[in-house]
Amino acid sequence: MRKKFKSFICFILAIIIFYGLLFLLGFTCPIKALTGVSCPGCGMTRAYISLLEFKPQKAFFYHPLFPIPALVLLSYFLKDKIPERIKKIGIFLVISLFFLVYIMRMIDPSDNIVIFNPKDSVIYRIYQGFN
User: Fold this and answer.
1) Cβ(15)–Cβ(41) under 8 Å?
2) pLDDT tens digit sequence for 72-111
3) Coarse DSSP helix, strand, coil percentages of the chain, rounded to the nearest 5 percent
4) For the purposes of burial, counting CB atoms within 10 Å of the CB of 37, is it exposed (0-12), middle (13-18) or buried (19 or more)?
5) What is the rounded CA–CA span in Å between residue 127 and residue 82?
6) Measured distance CA(77)–CA(129) in Å, rounded
7) Contacts of 104 (CB under 8 A, 6+ apart)
8) 37: DSSP letter
9) What is the distance between the alpha carbons of residues 113 and 67, in angstroms, rounded to a whole number?
10) What is the rounded end-to-end Cα distance, in angstroms, of the chain?
11) d(CA 31, CA 35)
12) Segments in the chain forming alpha helices (H)
């Protein structure tokens, strides 16, 4: 158990360092940087920053599902106590909710958090460089 916990902490630290380096290089999201299209988790970091600033309404504005990663983390530590069927239903619900919110935000023209702008992507710029 202790070895698993250490590897989990190392994994989380690696993700934080990776995103920190991307942020320092001017990229807020690797998927958006590569494709020009926001990912289903777009706005999550801003939501947590808003929560740390004690602005829960702003946090829900940035991403209405921001509490879910904390619940997933909690369920990871309780995974031995959760029945397999409940785990599968939970995974399905979480993925479905994220994509439902993502689609709704993509459809909403007034939403400026989730964007679709492939011409701002690294891939498009590389493509243009070959022409």
Assistant:
1) no
2) 888 888 888 999 999 999 999 999 999 999 999 999 989 8
3) 70, 0, 30
4) middle
5) 48
6) 48
7) none
8) B
9) 18
10) 54
11) 6
12) 2-24, 30-35, 44-52, 56-62, 68-77, 84-107, 122-130
The token duo for 28 is: 């807020």
In the block, residue with structure tokens 């920053």: 49
Residue 23 has pLDDT above 80, yes or no: no
Tokens of 56: 């829960």
Residues in the chain: 131
Amino acid, single-letter form, for residue 30: P
60 vs 76: CA distance, rounded Å:
24
On whether the CB atoms of residues 60 and 66 are closer than 8 A, the answer is yes
Angle between helix axes 68-77 and 84-107 (nearest 10 degrees) is 160
Instruction: Indicate the DSSP class of residue 25.
Output: T
Amino acid of residue 63: H
